[in-house]
Amino acid sequence: MPGSGLAAAWEISARLPSTRVVMLTISRDDSHVFAALRAGAAGYLLKDTETERLPTALKDVMNGEAALPVTLVTRLVEEFRDRAPRRRALMPSREGEPRLTSREWEVLELMRRKMTTAQIARTLVVSPATVRSHVAAILRKLRVPDRDAAVRLLDNPEP
Fold first, then answer.
1. Distance between terminal CA atoms of the chain?
2. 91-155 — its CATH code?
3. pLDDT tens across 45-79, in order?
4. DSSP per residue over 63-96, as a string?
5. How far is the C-alpha of 21 from the C-alpha of 83, rounded, in Å?
6. pTM here?
7. Quick one: pLDDT band at residue 95, thresholds 50, 70, 90?
8. Which pLDDT value is given to residue 2?
9. What angle do CA 81, 87, 88 make, to 5 degrees?
10. Is CATH 3.40.50.2300 the classification given to domain 5-74?
11. Largest interatomic CA distance in the chain
């Protein structure tokens, strides 16, 4: 496909929200899977998928289900399972206190991986200005002075 399949998924999802997008790719990279799902893809199939499985996978997507190889589903579950305890520890328990959005959690995790603003922007397919806005909101909500302090809080939630 000329251009970016990810950009096409964003555009299709934005212009035709009822359209179900399925990515057919060779990439098994977690960041590509997550980016495709964030772009609105309902399926992420690998090009080495057995050809007999494709019609069933596409029918499943047409019927409102997701189409992901089992190996990728397992990695998605591991990704969320790995971060869950840190998220619960940082989430305020009292009503009315600010909470991080799911996008802010994604940015915080990428900050933890020592990614720059530009790298985070490319990974999330957003502008650097959007990343800076998310970082500012994270720092404000966690009441910390800088990225390093936010990451330390993520890694060591106990005071």
1. 51
2. 1.10.10.10
3. 989 888 898 999 999 999 999 898 887 888 777 76
4. TT--B--HHHHHHHHHHHHHHHHHHHHHS--STT
5. 27
6. 0.51
7. low
8. 45
9. 100
10. yes
11. 54
